[in-house]
Write a structure and sequence with these properties.
Number of domains: 1
CATH architecture: 3-Layer(aba) Sandwich
Strand order of the largest sheet: 1-4-5-3-2
Keywords: Sugar transport, Transport
Radius of gyration: 14 Å
CATH superfamily: Mannitol-specific EII, Chain A
Protein name: PTS sugar transporter subunit IIA
InterPro entries: PTrfase/Anion_transptr, PTS_EIIA_type-2_dom, PTS_SugarTrans_NitroReg
Organism: Lacticaseibacillus zeae (Lactobacillus zeae)
């Protein structure tokens, strides 16, 4: 299971993309899921290869870095009270208002590839994204993710 309820933040306040990425990475680090070098590498990678994705009316971001900075595979999830701006992964000159962040920490590269494929499939369903974004409990989030083959 890649989602730990302790590493989910629902309806979080964040001033910007760096703030929410830092918050999620700290949650992963506190539980020893990632190394001390995980956050700096996520932030550096985000500058070079942004992860904002326009998925209709609900933008998402999937920040991540290399598996060598991961001790145990996990995804930190946050829904936001107000969207924050991420640069687009499709057009580097464009920004995306992101309402949900899936910080991916996979300990082996093949897990990341499979997971990204499943996430992209889920992102195509606006109804699922809407329900996920509006979920008030972590149990609701887990149920939605499980029904979309993400867990």
């Amino acid at each position: 299971m890649f989602f730990d309820e302790e590493i989910m933040t629902l309806h979080s306040d964040a001033s910007d993309a760096t703030a929410i990425m830092t918050k999620l990475a700290q949650q992963l680090r506190t539980r020893n899921m990632v190394t001390d070098q995980f956050l700096p590498h996520v932030l550096a990678r985000e500058k070079e290869y942004p992860t904002g994705l326009a998925t209709g009316s609900i933008g998402v971001a999937i920040p991540h870095t290399d598996s060598i900075y991961v001790n145990k595979s996990q995804i930190a999830f946050a829904s936001l009270t107000k969207p924050v701006t991420f640069r687009s992964m499709v057009d580097l000159n464009q920004t995306i208002k992101v309402s949900m962040v899936f910080m991916i920490a996979m300990s082996t590269p093949h897990e990341q590839t499979d997971l990204l494929s499943n996430l992209m499939n889920m992102f195509q369903n606006q109804n699922v994204l809407y329900k996920l974004n509006k979920s008030d409990t972590k149990k609701q989030v887990i149920t939605i993710l499980n029904s979309n083959n993400i867990i």
